[in-house]
Design brief:
257 residues; alpha/beta; seven-stranded parallel β-sheet; 7 strands; binds nicotinamide-adenine-dinucleotide
Length: 257
């Protein structure tokens, strides 16, 4: 049985991914700042092999402890999904240094730490698959998200670099780039009045939000060496066509008939 660590697994995309991978017979380690016990119990009740851990992905001592625990229990993880992340919506000229650093710490430094410590164990076994959860905000600019967008662009840069550095030693590193998803993150962002459902739905060629499950399926594909074994270093949009579409809004709306 393959062991995979999913960060940010208490809700949203992380929980959808952990649940799907558990169903596909992975042993899943759910990791989050928030408690995950309830989800671990439910998945175990359904027959899955899962474990839960609470901790901060941007804490090097925590990630080192996690790596020691994994080495002791399983030798190494076979997979890692760097999904934990936070949003920040603020004009660039009002973003504070502390806000910028916090976003970078969680969205970029955290994934680096997990790649560094769990990746080293994967390299020793010459096998592994890492999927980083970036965003369409890692592929193009979106106003009022300078820290978030920079962190996601950086995460795609990290993905490509590790793919180049580790591919020859059996460790693949890819990213998914979701469009807007109906999760707690979206509810909080919309709560600040930054945008509406209609803004998003009108912008997406497929005329809907992503679901956590859409993203989880793409992650599961990239994780599985039998299905994606020669895919390395890609940043896969899971966005209903958002980044492919340079149409102006009224033209897009006309295509909907
Ligand atoms: N929701 C969207 O529209 C959207 C779009 C594109 C990309 N994404 C990305 O997808 C990922 C998941 O987003 P989501 O919408 O499910 O978010 P969410 O806020 O619903 O869930 C994120 C989870 O990460 C956890 N987390 C936050 N900081 C952490 C830390 N330091 N250590 C450990 N866990 C931490 C939270 O507790 C939470 O459970 C994020 O990386 C996000 O940037 C989201």
């Amino acid at each position: 049985m393959k062991t995979i660590v999913v960060t940010g697994a208490a809700q949203g995309v992380g929980l959808a991914t952990a649940s799907l991978l558990a169903k596909r017979d992975y042993r899943v380690i759910l990791l989050d700042l928030q408690p995950v016990d309830e989800h671990v119990d439910r998945l175990r009740g359904a027959g899955a092999q899962v474990a839960g851990l609470s901790g901060d992905v941007s804490s090097e001592p925590f990630v080192q402890q996690l790596a020691h625990w994994i080495a002791r229990e399983y030798g190494a993880a076979d997979g890692l999904v760097n999904n934990a992340g936070i949003s920040l919506i603020a004009p660039a000229e009002e973003t504070t240094a502390a806000q910028w650093q916090r976003v970078m710490n969680i969205n970029l430094f955290g994934p680096f730490l997990l790649c560094r410590y769990l990746g080293a164990q994967m390299l020793a076994r010459r096998q592994g698959s890492i999927v980083n959860v970036a965003s369409v905000a890692g592929l193009a600019g979106v106003s009022h998200r300078s820290a978030y967008n920079s962190s996601k662009h950086g995460l795609i840069g990290l993905t490509k670099t590790l793919a180049a550095e580790w591919g020859g030693r059996g460790v693949r590193v890819n990213a998914v780039c979701p469009g807007w998803i109906k999760t707690e993150m979206d509810v909080a962002d919309q709560g600040s009045g930054a945008y509406s459902d209609a803004d998003i739905v009108n912008r997406v060629p497929m005329a809907r939000f992503a679901k956590g499950e859409d993203v989880a399926e793409a992650i599961a594909f990239l994780t599985d060496g039998d299905r994606s074994g020669f895919i390395n270093g890609v940043s896969l949009p899971v966005d209903g066509g958002w980044v492919a579409d340079a149409s102006w809004d009224s033209l897009r709306m006309r295509t909907r008939g």
